[in-house]
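Regression check, succinic acid case 533:
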Amino acid sequence: MKRPLNVLVVGSGIAGMSYAIELAGSAIGRNVRIRLLSKAPVHASSSYAAQGGVAAVMDARDSFDGHVEDTLMVGGGRNEPKVVDRIVREGPHLVNKLIAMGASFDADVSGRLHLSLEGGHSAARVVHHEDRTGAEIVRVLRGRVRALPMIEVWEGWQALDLLVQGEHGQRRCAGLSALEQRTGTMHTLQADLVVLATGGVGQVYQHTTNPTASTGDGIAMAVRAGVPLRDMAFVQFHPTAMYTGTSGQAFLISEAVRGAGARLLCHDGKPLMDGLHAMGDLAPRNVVARAIHREMERSGTEHVWLDIAPVGAARFAREFPAIDRRCGELGLRPVRDLLPVMPAAHYLCGGIATDDRGRTGLPGLLALGECAGSGSHGADRLASNSLLEAMVIAMRAAAIAPTYAPSDGPITANAFAEFSITGRTHASIDRAIRDLRHAMTCHVGVVRDRDGLACALRTIAHAELVVARRWVRRRLSDGLFNLRDMTAVARVITEAALAEPRSVGTHFLADEVASPEHRSSRSTKIQARFARR
Ligand code: SIN
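Current build output:
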């Protein structure tokens, strides 16, 4: 018997776990050893926090064409249509598979799935478990992972860099270096296949719905190994994160709340989205986030209001129990009180360039989920398409047998092999992280312009210098590794934004040099499409 295929999956969210489970259950499953590395516990992942659900065509009145068309419209035509088509068509199979695995999704009295409506969708098609869909899917996948002996979960391991074997056209991924957080020691982990499923980049912004682990490490590792990325300019801002006056991770108010009837209000009480878009409060996220940004600027405030009254207290408590509870903790009484909301960095639409089976530009390396850019989301992501995409591509990736890496040839040196971290982070690192987040929020956020993007690059260069200074003296710490990844990601986002000459999707250039015809014909097309419904 051949030695087992040695697979390292980085990230224990829905994408990483789905891949591990599928590979373990495949024809080669008996002869694989899968290590699932994660720097944070599974309940601290973006997947676990996902409220909305899984967009899928589950109703006879809906259609694949409709779901595809909505995805392309929100994506500003920058999506890969074939990838979108494949993912959308797999939706019902995926949902049924999750149900067969034990996932419980909300249903009406006759047992039909309850489908919620979210922004950009022309039909209600979001399958969900209350407002805790991610937690429910994670529960099911986690149970399956535990039951499969070929999968080992290594929690508290932070991947640092990819190991690359060979040169030029013969390069392939041969493993990675990783920090064992408990002991503070570095390790070289060789592998036949590495799968990056490290999630998003929200932590490079001041306000984000992402957990603290979302520092873009998988993408930064790919950058350092010269693996191609795509669509990095497109950072989606969710319009309705709860405003509390603090920075860092912000609690999300699901778009399904607006799908149930909640309305955004300006500070003078007027409906915010009236007259701005034919889909009103459920316009694509980039449109709503920009309208909120404008109102915040006009009024000189840091939030707008969400009025829950149209949903009604009983329905709100029944359908959104987690949000209802959080409001209570913050001393807010939904329906009686308006909820203060603001846009927050939510999802990276691009990432490490892959095909529809997660294959990257580096043999031996796959990328899945939010850190991957399969082209399915284009310039903005249709609501609740992310869990769908992550799981469908993970299944497709696991369906092709990975090839063994050649075992000869030098491997790029692991620069840290003989080092341990010094433990505490340093004030200069904390300051550089704060400045970086501030610059990204002010200049590479909902609204951008060229001067601002250039200014952000200067702040990024300063943070890179802080990293370099401590690096050469080997003053290694968790904070330094995080800053190193965050600067790499901030740079590629900002440079990608500078390279986009026109506003599209989440990338809005206030100083765009575009003909007025270009702008109006695009918005007229979108408006006309929804006016028809
Ligand atoms: C939401 O529930 O509003 C978020 C869902 C998503 O990001 O797709």
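Comparison notes: DSSP finds 15 helices and 20 strands in the chain. Residues 20 and 34 are 7 Å apart (CA to CA). No diff flagged against the previous build.
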